[in-house]
Specification:
By secondary structure, the protein is mainly alpha-helical. It has a single domain (5-341), classed as ABC transporter involved in vitamin B12 uptake, BtuC, CATH 1.10.3470. 71% of the residues lie in helices and 3% in strands. The protein has 14 helices and four strands. The chain has helices at residues 5-15, 17-32, 39-64, 72-86, 118-142, 147-166, 176-183, 191-209, 211-221, 223-228, 233-259, 270-281, 292-311, 316-341; strands spanning 102-104, 110-112, 185-186, 189-190. Strand 1 (102-104) and strand 2 (110-112) form a beta hairpin. It is globular and about 70 Å long. The chain crosses the membrane at residues 12-31, 51-70, 119-141, 147-165, 186-207, 318-335. This is Beta-methylgalactoside transporter. Pfam families: BPD_transp_2. GO terms for molecular function: transmembrane transporter activity.
Length: 342
């Protein structure tokens, strides 16, 4: 039976209620406060969204396959710390690697201890994090460990490794070429924003134009049916979690550059925000559905909500309650859409 126009409008309002309310809140905040609807605040908002979008893009693949990744926040902190230790100024008093400017390396060969190229460090961080993601994906795919348990275990392992590696010491004193990554601009936009847009484009291509993307959606729809149809389910899952971890490493690199410092607690709780953003934007927590635009919309809505509440003078602690309510509503609406389709 076809839906009437009234039913269609009702469904639209219910399914998109959170976004509609957010739109109204943004307009109200802009009309009642100063500097909210300004170019500077818009640029700050986009910069804050940049690394959060990269995280959400990584975690979206896990959610589309009806999984999750609780290790994201700790992976971000580990990536930020790994990048930080390799990109500190040589003469910084709190330098992590306390070698002299020149160190002997066998047979009198001298090696100058200088920070690595920031781009090389970015690739290194992504590769190291991807290795941990591969391990997580292997346990999920080949040992049938539930994603919740596997990523929870990896979260603890990464946190412990981060503490041992850094001695639980905050890092700082970065070289200018690294911090410039967050301060530099091209065509009026921060390098952070361009990096997020690049990763969004790459993710869109993977999701929509590759076999891997088709396999991912098939697994999320019905893993057993996908396997019968010849989809390499196990290898695809491993690749999804490896790719996600590489994205977390990049986000940690970006966050470290923006903050000018890092610790093992950098990125703490960001995995929950990313999962919430995915659900809010339309990446189904039941699997099989989700787009790059879904992650972007979810991240934008959450960031706008936090910024608007700050401008309205809402208590910082109360903001967590508001965000929690939004997550409840978003998840409930997603389940409602799933049950309606069944």
């Amino acid at each position: 039976m076809q839906k009437t126009q009234k039913q269609k409008i009702t469904d639209f309002l219910i399914n998109n209620g959170v976004i509609i309310v957010m739109f109204i809140l943004v307009i109200y905040t802009g009309l009642t406060t100063k500097n909210f609807l300004t170019p500077d605040n818009g640029m700050n908002l986009l910069a804050n969204m940049s690394y959060r979008l990269v995280i959400a893009l990584g975690i979206a693949g896990c959610v589309i396959t009806a999984g999750c990744d609780l290790s994201a926040g700790r992976m971000i902190g580990f990536g930020a710390c790994l990048a930080g230790t390799l990109l500190q100024q040589v003469d910084y008093s709190g330098r992590f690697f306390q070698q002299e400017p020149w160190a002997s390396l066998g047979n009198g060969f001298l090696l100058k201890i200088t920070p690595l190229n920031p781009f090389v460090v970015l690739l290194l961080v992504m590769v190291v994090c991807a290795i941990f993601g591969t391990i997580t994906g292997w346990f999920i795919a080949y040992l049938s460990v539930p994603p919740f348990i596997a990523t929870l275990a990896m979260m603890e392992i990464i946190y412990g490794l981060g503490l041992l590696f850094t001695n639980a010491t905050p890092l700082g004193g970065y070289v200018e070429s690294y911090t410039l990554f967050s301060r530099g601009k091209f065509l009026g936009l921060s390098f952070l924003i361009w990096m997020a847009l690049l990763m969004a484009g790459i993710t869109w291509f993977i999701f929509n134009m590759t076999r891997h993307g088709k396999y991912m959606y098939a697994i999320g729809g019905n893993a057993q049916a996908a396997e019968v149809a010849g989809v390499p389910v196990n290898m695809t899952l491993v690749m999804i979690y490896a790719k996600a971890a590489a994205f977390y490493g990049m986000a940690g690199y970006m966050l470290g550059a923006k903050a000018g410092g890092a610790s093992v607690n950098t990125g703490l709780g960001y995995e929950m925000e990313a999962i919430a953003a995915c659900a809010l934007g339309g990446v189904s927590v039941t699997g099989g559905r989700g787009k790059v635009s879904s992650a972007f919309i979810g991240v934008a809505v959450l960031e706008l909500l936090k910024t608007a509440l700050q401008y309205l003078g809402v208590n910082a602690n109360a903001q967590y309650i508001a965000i929690g309510i939004v997550i409840f509503i978003a998840a409930s609406l997603d389940i409602r859409k799933y049950l309606t389709k069944k």
